[in-house]
């Protein structure tokens, strides 16, 4: 577990028992190659069995909006030498792009595990409060048959109804619950306006 300024959290919101001090494990590496390093992924990802380790990575593709999304397949080796693959998506900021993931990373780490909504499962969330940087490693919804939609893509009535239904579940679950009166859920309109 890291110190209060650099929180290393696995996707389920629990500190990684394998994670060493924040001085040896960077919770939010600044470069994609650092994030895709098998040793770093072995420590970060929370969905491996005891003794499993990441031994290889294959890049599958990327997209960028405000944040960059990098899809990859991890080759995971068990203690007995058997191998399996699993696909993930990293959502992060690189090359000086504005940092916008702090609230989303907190959501995936703290709130998402408590909700019965359809959303990708995060296998890792890295938050560095001191630098304002955050990243998320989640299920690769594209490999699972989903798509990332852009702001200009058609949104059917059915899809809109479904999305609003999921938002209703989210809000009904947390409505007037004081535990969610936290800074990372404060309105961000002014922050977003400064970026455009």
- Number of helical regions: 5
Kindly report the average pLDDT value: 84
- As laid out across the biggest beta sheet, the strand order is 1-5-6-4-3-2
Question: Approximately how much beta-strand content do the residues carry?
Answer: 25-35%
Distance between the termini: 36 Å
Are there runs of 5+ residues with pLDDT below 50, and where? 1-6, 11-23
Task: Chart the SSEs and their pairings.
Elements: E1 6-10, H1 32-35, H2 38-44, E2 53-64, E3 68-77, E4 83-92, H3 102-111, E5 122-128, E6 133-139, H4 157-174, H5 189-195
Antiparallel strand pairs: 1-5, 2-3, 3-4, 4-6, 5-6
Your description of this structure?
It is a single chain. The protein is α+β, with helices and mostly antiparallel strands and 196 residues long. Helices cover 23% and strands 26% of the residues. It has 5 helices and 6 strands. It has helices at 32-35, 38-44, 102-111, 157-174, 189-195; strands spanning 6-10, 53-64, 68-77, 83-92, 122-128, 133-139. A 6-stranded antiparallel β-sheet has the order 1-5-6-4-3-2, sandwiched between helices. A hairpin with a 5-residue loop joins strand 3 (68-77) and strand 4 (83-92). The longest helix is centred in the last third of the chain and has 18 residues, at 157-174. The model is unreliable at 1-6 and 11-23 (pLDDT under 50).
């Amino acid at each position: 577990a890291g110190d209060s300024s650099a929180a290393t959290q696995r996707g389920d919101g629990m500190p990684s028992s394998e994670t060493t001090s924040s001085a040896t494990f960077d919770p939010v590496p600044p470069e994609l190659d650092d994030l895709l390093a098998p040793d770093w992924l072995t420590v970060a990802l929370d969905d491996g069995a005891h003794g499993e380790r990441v031994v290889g990575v294959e890049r599958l593709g990327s997209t960028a909006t405000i944040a960059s999304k990098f899809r990859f397949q991890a080759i995971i080796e068990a203690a007995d030498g058997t191998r399996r693959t699993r696909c993930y998506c990293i959502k992060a900021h690189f090359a000086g792009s504005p940092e916008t993931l702090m609230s989303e990373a907190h959501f995936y780490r703290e709130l998402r595990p408590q909700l019965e909504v359809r959303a990708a499962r995060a296998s890792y969330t890295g938050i560095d409060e001191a630098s304002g940087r955050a990243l998320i490693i989640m299920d690769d919804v594209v490999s699972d048959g989903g798509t990332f939609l852009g702001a200009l893509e058609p949104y059917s009535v059915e899809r809109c109804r479904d999305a609003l239904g999921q938002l209703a579940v989210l809000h009904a679950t947390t409505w007037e619950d004081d535990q969610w009166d936290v800074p990372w859920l404060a309105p961000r309109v002014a922050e977003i306006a400064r970026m455009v």
